[in-house]
Write a structure and sequence with these properties.
This protein is mainly alpha-helical. The chain has 13 helices and no strands. It has one domain. Helix 3 packs antiparallel against helix 12, helix 4 runs antiparallel to helix 11 and helix 5 packs across helix 10.
Length: 339
């Protein structure tokens, strides 16, 4: 693997040198490809256009990110920003590369979570959009446009991850391919209309399964948290190391989102039936609400408390999008019509 990693470092150096003027673009793209964007941006946007697609996005995002966590624990992938120093292969010729605020993620690097979750979630969106366009226009060319945008987006996210030294090229390729297959498979198994017990069981099952994998690796003498020490050692700035990029953060996000999805469907099965204008209003209010929920500061002194509150945040996401905001908008517009 040394040859693959070394080649990846020189590719990252070349990419940074040749596209330095597009630095801001790559930073925006890497934020768009962040798994949490699927929960906070893609989910509400799609839900108010198509409830089934919105639920599918949340479901696929949670399952694919959970699988990505397990894969990372098992595959032990290095990250470029720490492998440059740890490998001791660049003593005579240091690569001219730079880190960024999004570089220093603390989990293992293979496969890329950004590429994997984006590939899975966007497949749900583009397949739904492509089918809709074909049903309305019967144009193969027009219905193929979303799939072209899908490929372009995946390539852009992959390039952005290599650019900021978060991943090697082979890791984003592996993540993209895995995400595509997961999107195809999971999109046909969306849990619509399932009871709350189903989501509670899935959430607890994913939590316990991940903890069993973590504990099993420890029993084998393998430290699943080996990457955290390396990230702290080689990150250019200490403040770029954030607890919300730790592997357990993604686990609690996924379990919280699925439990929240079950609660939302329990409180209001089928959701609220709203015309287009109230839907647009609901989307705007939901987006503002999720923005402020996401920005709520959490205590980092106690990791246990942080993870619990982090999970609560993502339990709230489906409640805001599927129940609270559309319910208030429905109540307001209903009263207005009666008057």
């Amino acid at each position: 693997m040394e040859a693959v990693y070394t080649q990846g470092i020189w590719m990252a150096e070349s990419l940074q040198e040749r596209t330095r003027s597009q630095e801001r673009l790559w930073l925006v793209v890497t934020h768009i490809g962040d798994p949490k964007a699927a929960f906070l941006l893609v989910f509400p946007f799609t839900y108010f256009i198509s409830k089934r697609t919105g639920v599918a996005v949340l479901w696929v995002a949670a399952i694919s990110e959970w699988l990505n966590l397990v894969f990372k624990w098992i595959l032990f992938g290095e990250r470029p920003f720490w492998w440059i120093g740890e490998s001791h292969l660049f003593v005579s010729q240091q690569p001219k590369v730079h880190q960024f605020s999004s570089t220093c993620e603390t989990g293992p690097g293979s496969p890329s979570g950004h590429a994997m979750v984006t590939g899975a979630v966007l497949w749900v969106v583009v397949s739904s959009l492509g089918s809709f366009l074909y049903s309305r226009t019967h144009s193969v060319v027009l219905s193929a446009v979303p799939y072209l945008l899908y490929v372009v987006t995946l390539v852009a996210v992959g390039i952005s991850r290599v650019f900021i030294l978060a991943h090697f090229p082979h890791q984003v390729i592996a993540g993209s391919i895995t995400g595509f297959f997961l999107g195809v498979v999971l999109n046909h198994r969306v849990p619509e209309g399932r009871p709350l017990l189903f989501f509670f069981s899935i959430s607890i099952g994913l939590m316990l399964s991940a903890l069993m994998v973590h504990g099993g690796l420890q029993q084998l003498g393998i430290d699943p948290s080996w990457s955290i020490a390396l990230a702290k050692k080689w990150c250019s700035r200490a403040e770029w190391i954030r607890l919300d990029t730790a592997p357990f953060s993604s686990l609690f996000r996924d379990c919280g989102a699925l439990l929240g999805l079950g609660l939302a469907q329990y409180w209001k099965a089928g959701g609220w039936s709203l015309p287009w204008a109230p839907r647009a209003l609901s989307l705007a209010i939901s987006s503002m609400g999720l923005y402020h929920v996401h920005r709520l500061p959490l205590p980092v002194q106690s990791q246990g408390l942080f993870y619990v509150l982090f999970m609560v945040k993502f339990i709230m996401v489906p409640q805001i999008v599927m129940v609270l905001v559309p319910g208030l908008v429905h109540l307001f517009t209903h009263k207005k019509k009666k008057e």
